[in-house]
Amino acid sequence: IIAIGHINEAIDEGNPEKTLETLLLPTAKLQDVTPVNAKHYQDVLHYAKVQKCKESQDESVLLWLDEIQQGISDANNDIKEVAILAVGTSMINKSLEKGDSQPILMILQSKFGLRVLPECAETYFRNLSEAKNLKTREDSNESPWIKLIMKNMYEYYYNVETEKGTCVPPEGVVPKTSWLTGEEIQSIVGQVTADYNREQLWLANENLIVQLQARARGFLVRKKYQERKAFLQNQEPSAIKIQAFWKGFKQRKSYVDRLKVLQDNVAAIVKIQSWVKMWLARRAYRKRLQYFKDHNAEIVKIQAFLRANKAREDYRTLIGAENPPLVVLRKFAYLLDQSDLDFQEELEVTRLREEVVTKIRSNQQLEKDLNLMDIKIGLLVKNRITLQDVVLHSKKLNKKSKSQLEEMVMVDKQGIKGLSKERRKKLEAYQHLFYLLQTNPTYLAKLIFQMPQNKSTKFMDTVIFTLYNYASNQREEYLLLKLFKTALEEEINSKVDQIQDIVTGNPTVIKMVVSFNRGARGQNTLRQLLAPVVKEIMDDKSLIINTSPVDVYKSWVNQLEMQTGEASKLPYDVTTEQALTHTEVVSKLESSIQSLRAVTDKVLSSIFSSLNMMPYGMRYIAKVLKSSLHEKFPDATEDELLKIVGNLLYYRYMNPAIVAPDGFDIIDMTAGGQIHSDQRRNLGCVAKVLQHAASNKLFEGESEHLSSMNTYLSQTYQKFRYTKPWQIPAHFGQDTVFLSSSHSTTVKITYSVRYLLHIREKLVLNKLLLLEHQDAIATEPNDLLNELLEGLGPVPDVESFLGEGAVDPNDPNKGSTLNQLAKTEISLSLTSKYDLREGEDQDLKSLMIKTKRLIVDVIRTQPGDTLLEILETPATAQQESEHLKLVEKRAVLDSKTPEKMKHSESIFEDGQLPVEQKKRKIQRNLRTLEQAGLVSPETKYQEIINEIAK
């Protein structure tokens, strides 16, 4: 009894070792106690005691000796059974791993005690293998222990390597999970056996089952059919209606689906259409080509004529440069050997011009008398019409007289050009007004800034550009640039408060200049300037420039995933700072920066080497912009001014064409073609660097990762300063160029300049000037504009320009008709209101010609870069000798010249002078011409060089 008490106390404490000691007490006289099963003894006995307590509802109850012996026997049996099951489980899994199916049946029968069928041996093996494969993992790191559960309560661990088991969990054990457990093996084998038995049962009764199924299904189908048939017969009207709705729904759905297909495939449809259009165009082209082949002889003649004209035009261009250098002029000076007759003719032309001026003055008076006579004839015609209305029964006029009378009456309805003194006077007033506005840009420059900005652009397009004929010739181009210059100076003085306003704002004049130079006139220039280098960048398929660290990081991660075939463990969305922590990203970024520098150098080289191709107007306006800003902001540094000029020339003019070359027709694009995103990003990066370099703006803040290019930006900015694209000959500001000298202006006024202007444009300009902004434009009371506007009278309407009867007053569409007629063009001969100046100085012209002859003689014998340099450099003895030979040769030619064609005595004497005396005389003559305003030392007397080149 004492031993039983000790055993129960040890069981309650839950200590397997102490429980084993009490079980081994001699006084207990217990049998078959195995020490290795101590843990299981403890578990079984403790469970038995707990159950006994529950049954007796007494917690102090004890296990007696027979109950303890029964628990030991049950525990030993459990260990034996589970050991056999563990061995069987190990053998099954090992056979599955080896792929050996032979011992499977024997193991299942001997170890598991299962009733298995030899016919299912392969099925047992296949299903067990599939189940094991599902549990097997490649990266599993498992111990040799497997865990089994006894009676769904107690754990048992079996080492498959040592083939020993224990109820105590080994330290740090990780049981195998890739092996099938005994329960899983029994379940799979039992399922296979059951499936096989059921299959054999069905096979044995297959014929009966088929017949039963067939009869049952036939009965069900016939019953269902009869029910459905009866239902449809009873619901025939509803069925018809449902079918109608259903068919309508299907048709609408088909239509919507087809429409969606077409909408989703617009690109393909457009492509098909483009192919058809291309085929039609190709067919038309082939027809046209065949036509050319059929008329080959005529085409050859036309081409020969055009090529001859082109050759002559090229030669005129060669010798007709705007400011030919003296070095070039000296190379062709020999051509003047036979131009003695030209000098004589020029003198004669000068005399004739004086005579023409006199004749023109006389003709003007005659024209006034003729206009007065026309008006009187018109009044006489009116009187005849009135007389004819009063005397109805006078003698009948013949048809010819009636026709002449109707034509004379219609003259009164010709509007502003009608035969009336008032209309003729108004026509002349408009001609004087437009001439004044065209030649004096101050009025239009002020007018632009008196109007709202949204109206000034339309005003420029509809009136001002038309007034200057879109700079179609040299005179209009000069006058339009002069307007731009005046308007820009006006805008800077009145609108710009800070120097940065030019960059941050959108100046009207800058916008007009850039738009004008990007138009049809400047488009070819921009294409020649940028097309080669832009095309080279786009054609380089290996060039990939990406300066965004985040984009480079994402591209790198995608590349890693493609190489490994596995999802990267790196985060996809990162900040710029996080992306730059990866060496691969920094390396790729540095590679892009190196490529960006190389490509930018190519673009800069192309731009700097082709500055002479940049439109002259852009460079001139850049110069005016720099000088005007310097005048208003004298404290501004040179760098600040250069940033503004760079913003104009590079950011506003060139950058958009580099970023979007397809939009500015810089490159040729195929039909439906577009620039690849990589190409556009490359061009955008280059444009961004050029923009920063032109304005000397460094990479800071968000672009700190590009700070390694700051030194490069500073160096590029210095290159920009060195090239000085704004430095051009300052001849636009002088009145001696582009037909602006005193004599050329007089001649231009004499011959008039004819323009076609819309009636609406005349109305708009007149209304704006007269009613709205006259006080702001012409501030002085005696201003010429005030006088001309006063002569125009009140603002006219369209009918006053077209004449009475131009529009039927009863016409219901009178308004639209007037709008259409407002687009009618009227030809104006722009003339000055003031008479030609008296007494043109013929001596100055003769002096100019004599000076040109002396200069030709001097430059032929003495070289130099400029005329001033030649005049200040003494001639050598060899040069004097060459000049003496030239004089002697000319004397021989003069002796053979007919008397009427010989030079005057003064010209002959000047030709005999030595070189140094000729140079002194040239200097005296140049001073006289300079006082007359015909030449200027600031231009190194380029004006007279231009005259010689002509």
TrEMBL record:
Under the cellular component aspect of Gene Ontology, which terms does the record hold? cell cortex
Q: Which superkingdom does the taxonomy of this entry point to? A: Eukaryota
What are the recorded GO MF terms, alphabetically? Answer: actin filament binding; calmodulin binding; GTPase activator activity
Q: Which Gene3D superfamilies match?
A: 1.20.5.190, GTPase Activation - p120gap, domain 1 (1.10.506.10)
Ras-GAP domain boundaries: 462-695
**SMART domains according to UniProt:** IQ, RasGAP
PROSITE patterns membership: IQ, RAS_GTPASE_ACTIV_1, RAS_GTPASE_ACTIV_2
Q: Which GO terms describe its biological process?
A: mitotic actomyosin contractile ring assembly actin filament organization
Fetch the InterPro entries from UniProt. Answer: IQ_motif_EF-hand-BS (IPR000048), RasGAP_C (IPR000593), RasGAP_CS (IPR023152), RasGAP_dom (IPR001936), Rho_GTPase_activation_prot (IPR008936)
Q: What is this protein called?
A: IQGA2 protein
Which organism was this protein described from? Answer: Centropus bengalensis (lesser coucal)
